């Protein structure tokens, strides 16, 4: 299927900005510049997220004493709810609670689920495995505080996009591989265009290397900041596709973008989960690129994706 026409127009404008020198590829910027530009895209991609959702600011203390910000999103007037732990993407280098605020609002707006969004420390200031440890600590904190927050600790879904999805897979695998490290067993997984193998490139890395929002060179830039040593990329907590001896995990909903350098490794990870006995629902979003979940203001196709996700979660009850 060709590119979504609205998204194609947006990408053409972005390309024009490069030709006129108004913007540059992320991997050519400093870390500080890249973070600023990424944050600024949020208001363009989804300028009008649901405003009625109640947002509570929280803090989580990590194992080394570092205090991490977090947020809890829920529709007003809701009682005890199942929870979605939503972990933001950004290549471990960019991204924040603010950049992915619209996603959390849209998942919480129906009133069916509360959304817990934890922050984690970014690279290069904090390299591997800090993001993994921060995410585990935040997830365990949520399980401990579920009753106080009026959340159902028996139904916690782990979710995320891009490397946020990678961190969600870490939680799901940890729950089975080393269950003593996680205080709950995930109810389900929502994995949007996950990074599953940083150790090699596949055909989609070459086919969609440029001009489709996320660039292959930018991926490498991210990985160099987070995993400066090649051996780190072979760790399953960075490349879950390399996890060995997997048994059945929580049911997984995997949503990939057709025009994404990560497409092939996403397909490969879905196959690995199926081989492990995990129930997998794989959706390929035709005509869309990486980061589509933040694009409600660009293309009308995104609203239907959220509806499908929430419908799938209800089927897991």
UniProtKB/TrEMBL annotation:
Lineage top rank: taxon: Bacteria
Domain Alpha/beta hydrolase fold-3 positions: 84-293
Record bears the keyword Hydrolase: yes
Gene3D superfamilies the record matches: alpha/beta hydrolase (3.40.50.1820)
Record's keyword annotation contains Lipid biosynthesis: no
Protein keywords: Hydrolase
E.C. no: 3.1.1.3
InterPro entries: AB_hydrolase_3, AB_hydrolase_fold, GDXG_lipolytic_enzyme, Lipase_GDXG_HIS_AS
Stretches assigned to coiled coil: none
An example Gene Ontology molecular-function term: triacylglycerol lipase activity
Entry similarity comment: Belongs to the 'GDXG' lipolytic enzyme family.
PANTHER family for the chain: AB HYDROLASE SUPERFAMILY PROTEIN C4A8.06C, ALPHA_BETA HYDROLASE FOLD-3 DOMAIN-CONTAINING PROTEIN-RELATED
Name this protein carries in UniProt: Alpha/beta hydrolase
Organism name: Pseudomonas synxantha
């Amino acid at each position: 299927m060709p590119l979504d026409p609205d998204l194609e127009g947006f990408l053409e404008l972005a390309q024009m900005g490069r030709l006129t020198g108004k913007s540059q590829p992320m991997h050519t910027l400093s870390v500080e510049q890249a973070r600023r530009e990424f944050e600024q895209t949020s208001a363009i991609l989804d300028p009008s997220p649901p405003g009625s959702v109640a947002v509570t600011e929280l803090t989580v203390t990590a194992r080394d004493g570092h205090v991490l910000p977090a947020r809890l999103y829920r529709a007003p007037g809701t009682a005890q709810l199942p929870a979605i732990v939503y972990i933001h993407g950004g290549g471990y280098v960019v991204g924040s609670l603010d950049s992915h605020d619209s996603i959390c609002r849209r998942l919480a707006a129906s009133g069916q689920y509360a959304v817990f969004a934890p922050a984690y420390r970014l690279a290069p200031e904090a390299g591997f495995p800090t993001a993994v440890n921060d995410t585990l600590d935040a997830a365990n904190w949520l399980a401990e505080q579920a009753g106080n927050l009026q959340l159902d600790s028996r139904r916690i879904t782990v979710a995320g996009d891009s490397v946020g999805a990678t961190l969600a897979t870490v939680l799901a695998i940890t729950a089975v591989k080393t269950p003593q490290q996680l205080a709950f067993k995930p109810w389900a997984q929502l994995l949007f265009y996950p990074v599953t193998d940083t150790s090699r490139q596949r055909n989609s890395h070459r086919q969609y290397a440029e001009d489709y929002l996320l660039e292959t060179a930018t991926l490498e830039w991210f990985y160099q900041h987070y995993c400066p040593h090649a051996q780190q990329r072979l760790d399953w907590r960075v490349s879950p596709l390399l996890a060995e001896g997997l048994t059945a995990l929580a049911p997984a909903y995997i949503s990939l973008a057709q025009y994404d350098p990560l497409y092939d490794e996403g397909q490969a990870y879905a196959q690995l989960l199926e081989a492990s006995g995990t129930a997998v629902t794989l959706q390929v979003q035709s005509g869309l690129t990486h980061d589509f979940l933040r694009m409600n203001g660009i293309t009308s196709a995104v609203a239907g994706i959220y509806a499908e996700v929430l419908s799938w979660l209800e089927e897991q009850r």
